[in-house]
Design goal:
globular; 3 domains
Length: 553
């Protein structure tokens, strides 16, 4: 059930109405039933089975870790009580006093508990990431192994099975495993109610394409009764309209150019500048599509009084690739930082590496190289997360190279800026950095639009070998499936989105400004937004609107 369908709108109206009509203590049950129904209709019974497996194993693993904690603490206290009897007998002055563990006993207890909890954590992680790995990467691995066996004339062949991915499997798996890791770390206690944890895992606004929420931020909102908040409701509606506008009016219009150029670049031998311009428009399409989808789900969630994680913060205003990834798909970046980067960078092997390198190659590079390597590993994983294709490995290595070298050469870069008297806050330097970052990101988009890694390298070669900027002046752009009127409209809409991002960057939100206005002005904005979506949206007979791009991940 697509977010831009009338079925979804009707479903949302019914869910919100029932949510506020029933007593507050039952509201979370409405969200659970709505989420289960939405996922069952969208994904079918087979997909629902995979979600159920994740919910049950996560719940069971977290509860078992809690039980281990309590059981071992009780055993340690009993052992301490037996080993330290009162010198004056049971009737003495110390009788009845609570038993306290020594520092050494507490340390021993913590080590034992963590060892057992990590065993449980490892088993649940292996199961759930194993399911994700088999469904998402099984065919890819089997195909490549068969190719490898064929090179060595081996008769061994592995069956290749193409699995249909359950809706949002990467998002709900990462979200659930993040919760489990936090329970293992002792950040919070396990949720004992299976159905409450099921709601956290399958909350329908965010299960399809994220964001990847954290338990301590989302769960309490889901279970807490909410009264109808008129201001919050208005902002939610406005955010949904903004999301529909970005997806249906901008993303789908930009996709016409993207599909035309990248679908036939080899057949038509498009010039390099044409490919680069198409990559820029793909970046616009992807941003309007993904961020628009997040706006829809975040706005829908606000209707229930629930705030979900922000996933974008004006990414095209970034001045470096590192900053871009701090602003783009922020929930994935934060997940990788907290559950992959820090555990690797702060691990004992990396600590030993840092100590050794400081002696061999100097304190600065010895200090930053482990972070460089950890960043490289993280971004290769980010690339692999995007899909089962070698082009995504290239994508990960490409971004890993830029992010990691920024870390490794941060001090030399700063020295160069000082040498050339470049002020970090100078407007011209900021603009140069943003354009440079946009160029690097646009080149990286080749890995998204190309069908395979080989095509990525052919696109790169064509970009720099047949570079012809005259398409900006000779009207060639209007031969890529979009006429002059629609192209001009697209440029105006891109400027509009950029203006809204600039306002947001300054700490304000346009929807907040509009929601605070008087009723006639608000309704004028609502009706205008709806009219623009209906009139300029790309839909209707003969036009197959693409689903959300990130739903496939």
């Amino acid at each position: 059930m697509a977010f831009f369908s009338w079925q979804f709108i009707c479903f949302l109206i019914v869910a919100v109405t029932v949510y506020y009509l029933i007593p507050g203590r039952f509201q979370w049950i409405v969200l659970l039933i709505s989420s289960a129904w939405y996922y069952f209709v969208g994904g079918g019974p087979r997909a629902a089975i995979f979600v159920a497996v994740t919910v049950v194993t996560t719940w069971g693993g977290a509860c078992l870790m809690d039980s281990i904690q309590k059981k071992e603490e009780l055993k340690a206290l009993e052992a301490a009580a037996h080993s330290s009897p009162s010198e004056e007998g049971d009737s003495g002055p110390s009788a009845g006093k609570p038993v306290k563990l020594s520092r050494a006993q507490k340390k021993e207890l913590k080590a034992l508990v963590q060892k057992k909890k990590r065993l449980v954590l490892t088993l649940v992680l292996l199961l759930n990431f194993g399911i994700l790995g088999v469904l998402k990467y099984g065919s890819f691995v089997s195909t490549n192994l068969n190719s490898l066996f064929a090179r060595f004339h081996s008769g061994t062949q592995i069956p290749v099975v193409d699995f249909i991915l359950p809706l949002g499997i990467s998002f709900y798996t990462f979200q659930s495993m993040g919760y489990l890791i936090d329970v293992c770390r002792g950040k919070y206690r396990a949720e004992r109610n299976l159905f409450r944890l099921a709601l956290f895992t399958s909350y329908f606004p965010s299960i399809l394409q994220g964001p990847i929420n954290r338990y301590d931020e989302l769960a309490s909102q889901l279970y807490t009764p909410h009264r109808f908040d008129d201001r919050r409701f208005r902002e939610g509606i406005l955010r949904m309209l903004w999301g529909f506008f970005k997806k249906m009016v901008i993303a789908e219009r930009a996709s016409v150019i993207v599909n035309e150029v990248f679908g036939g670049f080899e057949q038509h031998r498009y010039a390099g500048f044409t490919i680069l311009v198409a990559a820029f428009f793909y970046g616009i399409q992807l941003y309007a599509d993904f961020a628009g989808g997040i706006d829809i789900v975040a706005g829908a969630s606000e209707l229930f009084g629930v705030s979900i994680r922000e996933n974008f913060r004006q990414p095209y205003m970034s001045r470096s690739i590192s900053e871009f990834w701090q602003r783009w798909h922020m929930s994935l970046g934060n997940w990788m930082r907290d559950y992959v980067f820090y555990p690797i960078a702060l691990s004992k092997p990396f600590a030993r590496m840092q100590k050794s390198l400081r002696k061999k190659i100097g304190p600065y590079f010895g200090k930053v190289f482990p972070s460089f390597l950890a960043s490289f590993i993280v971004f290769i994983l980010v690339g692999i997360w995007h899909g089962a294709n070698w082009k995504y490995v290239v994508y990960g290595i490409y971004h890993a190279t830029f992010v990691s070298t920024e870390t490794l050469f941060e001090k030399p870069y700063a020295d160069l800026r000082r040498f050339f008297h470049i002020r970090d806050e100078a407007a011209g330097w900021k603009l140069f950095q943003m354009v440079r970052t946009l160029f690097i990101v646009s080149i990286g988009r080749y890995c998204d639009v190309a069908p395979d890694a080989g095509t990525v390298f052919r696109l790169l070669r064509a970009t720099f070998s047949r570079f012809n900027p005259w398409i900006l002046f000779d009207g060639s752009l209007f031969t890529f499936g979009i006429d002059e009127r629609n192209f001009g409209l697209l440029i105006l809409l891109i400027i509009l989105v950029a203006a809204v991002d600039i306002i947001n960057e300054r700490g304000q939100t346009v929807r907040g400004i509009v929601a605070s206005q008087q009723l006639p002005f608000r309704w004028a904005v609502y009706l205008t937004a709806i009219a623009v979506i209906l009139v300029f949206g790309m839909y209707g007979p003969g036009f197959d609107m693409a689903s959300f791009i990130y739903a496939q991940f």
